Amino acid sequence: MPGPISCQGPRGVRRSGFVSTAATSAGTEADAIAEVAEAGVTASHVLGEDGGDTGDGREPEVGDERRAMDPWLFFAAMALSCLGLVMVYSAGVYTARVRHDNWEFFLERQGLFFALGTAVMLGVSRIDYRVFRRFAGLFMGLALFGLVAVLFVGDEVNGARRWIRLPGMNIQPSELAKVALAGFLSTMLARQGERVRRFKVGFLPPLVVASVTMLLVLLERDLGTTILLGALTMTLLFVAGTRIAYVLAAAMLAAPLVWHQIVDVGYRKGRLLDYLSGEQSYQIQQSLIAVGSGGPWGLGLGAGRQKLGFLPENHTDFILASIGEELGLAGISAVIALFCLLVWRGLVTARNAPDRFGTYLAIALSALFGFQAMINMAVVLDVIPAKGITLPFLSYGGSSLLVSMGAVGILLAISRRPRPWRISDQRGARTLAAAAAPGETRAQRIAQARGQAPHRTGVLQRLWPFGRPGPAPVRRANVRRG
User: Fold this and answer.
1) Which of 33, 90, 375, 461 would staple 457 via disulfide (CB 3.0–4.6 Å)?
2) What's the confidence (pLDDT) of residue 458?
3) Main-chain dihedrals φ then ψ at residue 248, nearest 5 degrees
4) Cβ proximity of 186 and 209 under 8 Å
5) Is the pLDDT of residue 50 over 80?
6) Are residues 61 and 83 in the same domain?
7) Burial 157-178 (b: 16+ CB within 10 A, else e)
8) Spatial distance between the Cα atoms of 184 and 179, rounded to a whole number of angstroms
9) Are residues 334 and 440 in the same domain?
């Protein structure tokens, strides 16, 4: 009569099945394999994808499965981008005719960046996200170089020097710096582990890197992005487990500096006084008129009137006002719902990430989208004083759209939980050589005992992002190695 038996893995991973007492007493591997096959225990639940050891001294965990990329995350990003493409054309058609003598000027450029962004998003989603951990320092160095270069060769627009003009497009280095800082801080905090609770080792180094980045962005006279980077840094430090006292102390030290940047700069002080006195500036007045005239369902797509030279920047920073005018409260609610879906699925991706770095990076990118959208919406609706910050996916701008869709591609890559690439693997060369050594694996022996052929997938099935997922790679702790 078969009886229960459980076996203890190298690191305490327990697996149970039913084998006969005769097979147990005999102790032969062939009999045990046959009994396991008869009990219906598949190799994918007991072994890794290659059927053998995982290369780090233990066998995979039960139920740890590789997945297809998150379809809801993909849908939210594409829906926002498509809506932004439509609204950029509708809101900017008059401005395009006046400035460039071409009704479709903004549509053509935004459509090109949308196509490039979609290709970037899908391409990045097929990459092992651990590559960004391997080259986080290089990406951060390039971002800092761009922030320094824009101070010398950048074009000044509306009193701010944020763009580097290149043939065919303008590059905004602060957009790249947001994602680079998110990846670099995630790498640092993942390597520190529990040492993040120490001030000199875990808390101070990330804060110094973030402070240098924020200082360079502030020199561009971009206070909104500076505050956004500060909120991102504090969020990651809090999630990583640093002491609350350190986070509060950093926030209190930063508050006087922010206040100094507001009251000592003329136009920022004027915006604050207008907000506190209840006397809105011309741009805020026109924004509220646009939102209010839309009503619950809007005036109709293309029927807005504030775009006829009344509302400045209605296709960039204040595109939400154009959405409210033409699509009404329903349109604004749809935008908010899509951003909530995007952030929620990003946090779900962070929760299911296979390592600490993936968790921190997914939280950082989700926080960037959430914070930036909230700041932009609050400005348009006169909840906070005016700030020059775009609405992700919706506002006109090539750098913003490409970086946003690339960041979504990273989130999609994390949601797939891909097999580690050799270039991003943190194990030693000897362990990798042993893992790649040829030989019959236990999975092959089990499949042979069950009379099954090894599972093979075609090229199209492997490239299709929503295909049926296979077994997952091993969930390994992201610890610092000497």
Assistant:
1) 461
2) 52
3) -65, -40
4) no
5) no
6) no
7) eeeebbbbeeeeeebbbbbbbb
8) 9
9) no
pLDDT tops 90 at residue 320: yes
Contact 206, 236 (CB under 8 A): yes
* pLDDT score recorded for residue 222: 87
198 and 325 in a common domain: yes
Tokens of 267: 């136009």
CA distance 255 to 362: 27
Tokens 């998150």 map to which residue? 70
Vertex 100 angle, CA 99 and 105, to 5°: 120
pLDDT of residue 265: 81
Question: Tokens 């997914």 map to which residue?
Answer: 362
**Same structural domain for residues 264 and 330?**
yes
Q: pLDDT tier at 277 (50, 70, 90 boundaries)?
A: confident
Cα angle 334-285-305, degrees, rounded to a multiple of 5: 65
Judge whether 41 and 47 are in contact, CB under 8 Å: no
- Same domain? 59 vs 122: no
Distance, CA of 361 to CA of 185 (rounded, Å): 8
Q: How far apart are CA 248 and CA 274, in angstroms?
A: 29
Q: Which residue has the tokens 């043939």?
A: 167
pLDDT at 6 over 60: no
Number of domains in the chain: 2
C-alpha–C-alpha distance, residues 144 and 180, integer Å? 9
Amino acid at 13: V
HEC profile of the chain: CCEEEEEECCCCCEEEEEECHHHHHHCCHHHHHHHHHHHCCCHHHHCCCCCCCCCCCCCCCCCCECCCCCHHHHHHHHHHHHHHHHHHHHHHHHHHHHHHCCCCHHHHHHHHHHHHHHHHHHHHHCCCCHHHHHCHHHHHHHHHHHHHHHHHHCEEECCEEEEEEECCEEECHHHHHHHHHHHHHHHHHHHHHHHHHCHHHHHHHHHHHHHHHHHHHHHCCCHHHHHHHHHHHHHHHHHHCCCHHHHHHHHHHHHHHHHHHHHCCHHHHHHHHHHHHCCCCHHHHHHHHHHHHHCCCCCCCCCCCCCCCCCCCCCCCCHHHHHHHHHHHHHHHHHHHHHHHHHHHHHHHHHCCCCHHHHHHHHHHHHHHHHHHHHHHHHHCCCCCCCCCCCCCCCCCHHHHHHHHHHHHHHHHHHHCCCCCCCCCCCCHHHHHHHCCCCCCHHHHHHHHCCCCCCCCCHHHHHCCCCCCCECCCCCCCCCCC
Same domain, 203 and 227: yes
